Amino acid sequence: MSVLVVGSTALDSIKTPTAENPRLLGGSASHAAVAASFFAPVKLVGVVGHDFPKRYVALYKKHGIDLTGLQIVEGKTFHWSGEYEVNMNNRRTLSTELGVFETFTPHLPDAYKNSPYVLLANIAPSLQHHVLDQIRKPRFVVADTMDLWLNIALDDLLKLIKRVDCFVLNDSEARQLTDDSNIPRALKKIHKLGPKYVIIKKGEHGSILSGPSGLFIAPAYPLQKVCDPTGAGDSFVGGLLGYLASQNGSIEKNLRRAIIHGSAVASFCCEGFGLNSTTRATKQKIAARVRELEKMVGF
Amino acid sequence: MSVLVVGSTALDSIKTPTAENPRLLGGSASHAAVAASFFAPVKLVGVVGHDFPKRYVALYKKHGIDLTGLQIVEGKTFHWSGEYEVNMNNRRTLSTELGVFETFTPHLPDAYKNSPYVLLANIAPSLQHHVLDQIRKPRFVVADTMDLWLNIALDDLLKLIKRVDCFVLNDSEARQLTDDSNIPRALKKIHKLGPKYVIIKKGEHGSILSGPSGLFIAPAYPLQKVCDPTGAGDSFVGGLLGYLASQNGSIEKNLRRAIIHGSAVASFCCEGFGLNSTTRATKQKIAARVRELEKMVGF
Fold first, then answer.
1. Are B77 and B51 in contact (CB under 8 A)?
2. Which residue in the set B86, B183, B224 is minimally distant from A184, CB to CB?
3. Were B108 and a residue from A125, A207, B134, B299 both cysteine, which residue would form a disulfide, CB within 3.0 to 4.6 Å?
4. Which of B98, B90, B228, B110 lies closest to B172, judged by CA?
5. Distance from CA of A172 to the nearest CA of B (A)
6. CA nearest B21: which of B61, B75, B80?
7. Cα(A18)–Cα(A10) distance, rounded to whole angstroms?
8. Is the CB of B133 inside 8 Å of chain A's CB atoms?
9. Is B27 helix (H, G, I), strand (E, B) or coil?
10. According to the model, what pLDDT value does residue A87 have?
11. Chain A closest CA to B286's CA: distance in Å?
């Protein structure tokens, strides 16, 4: 079954202690859509300007991504620029130019409205609501977010959390949202906001799922070389939902393996700038890392 | 088979945001010995002063710990005092009074010298060497350490690392020792210093073992209430080595389950001040948490 992905479609200029790469293909929807495409057909919703390089459109197409919902409008593509510290965990934003995102309203093509799996990748909660309003009876809706929306659009975000099946956020966002430094307690508090499933991403420390059958402690794939972690979280949710959409059986039964597939795709993302390494992954290479992870956690 | 534990035997005065407890039984050897005692007979090596409360001697005895190697000498027991921040991860030392530890030289009773399993719990590396010098053909030697020894006794520590089968340290110590912020790379660098097995403790994020059959990513037991994490790392290595000593078969075969047992015991440690909660654990309660962890990581 197919996955609908809405989120940001951007150009990222990224600086690390060892290299600098301008105007890479980036944005939460780009990372999530490519990650999901290894497992299921993907429909993209987003907006770019006329400056959006044709090679990036070709890249989406190479991954079989349906671009009917990608608006190409007058103006400049959303451009983010950031810099990582030596530890590759801390990063600071150097500049954010919203461009055509400033006036973006996601319109779903009719063919998108029956999408069974919906990923509201990181984007303003008001836009995530707007997409949900247009969807008919989705089977499973996942929403991701970022600290920015906790700071400037908390009411919208809280309303959104009530509407989704699975809410994904990172550990510092979970602490901020719940005002609680204890992750197991924070998970309980987030369930009270509505969602059946909550996933807290912890970067190199993996992730933790809380749902009806308790906690699932998931590892990150250990990497000896992290080139650029931008988009790893988006790749994680994209891979997760793509895998879910490709499987028969209940969400409950498949969600743990979906998370591991998300971890595996995210590890490829970290090994190259932008989407350079993700796009070189294959279903087989991802499956090999899933098997490795399986061996690394068994006892 | 039995476990020899050498380390500090101390009185800890601990302040958290919600409570304050003076002169608790503490020290790396106390935590490790009690943790190991759930699985195997334990022989303790340490030193205390005449002010050491009799109830603490009784506590050791209640756990069947052999105290032939515990020196009780003129002077004051090592006293550490520290304070935790609200997140219960960051702590600062308020005072350290070495007392009788200042002149301590561990002498092993003859009956200790054939101990097959040896835990060099956190203590000055020179003392860890001194204990190893007195041991005949141990089957498995584990050494733990702390940042203090990296700062003031690095040469001694590097020589010690060469002599042990398994070296245990936490993530920030691993980064400091290897000057590398990447944990998988740090593990490789520490292997080059000598030990066959390296375990990096990551607190609430669990631990990671590196050995001949690759990496093992181990979870911490998720706790909704952390009362006092002092001694959790010592309980982890104690539980780990106690479990190993209780099992037939190769180290390689048993080490992963041993780590999970260490995690489970450490979780009890965190639930009370000092050893208050650890001493209320039982082999059955620990086994129940091991089963829970097994369910939490399966996919």
1. yes
2. B224
3. B134
4. B90
5. 12
6. B80
7. 23
8. no
9. coil
10. 81
11. 16
Q: Is the distance from CB of A237 to CB of A119 less than 8 angstroms?
A: yes
Chain segment A48-81, per-residue pLDDT in tens: 999 999 999 999 999 999 999 999 999 999 999 9
Two tokens at B244? 């190993």
Tokens of B4: 């020899």
- Kindly state whether A204 is in contact with chain B, defined as any CB-CB distance less than 8 angstroms: yes
Q: Does B222 touch chain A (CB under 8 A)?
A: yes
Which of B86, B188, B215 lies nearest to residue A296, judging by beta carbons? B215
Question: Of the candidates B65, B80, B11, which has an alpha carbon nearest to the alpha carbon of residue B35?
Answer: B65
Query: CA-CA distance, B151 to A142, in Å (whole number)?
Result: 47
ipTM: 0.95
Q: Is B195 touching A (CB cutoff 8 A)? A: no
Radius of gyration of chain A (CA): 18
Q: Which of the residues in chain B have pLDDT under 50? A: none
pLDDT band (50, 70, 90) for residue A140: very high
CB B5 within 8 A of CB B29: yes
Any bridge partners for residue A92, and if so which?
A83
Find out whether A209 and A193 touch, Cβ atoms under 8 Å.
no
Residue identified by tokens 């006794």 is: B153
Residue A250's H or E segment, with its range, is: none
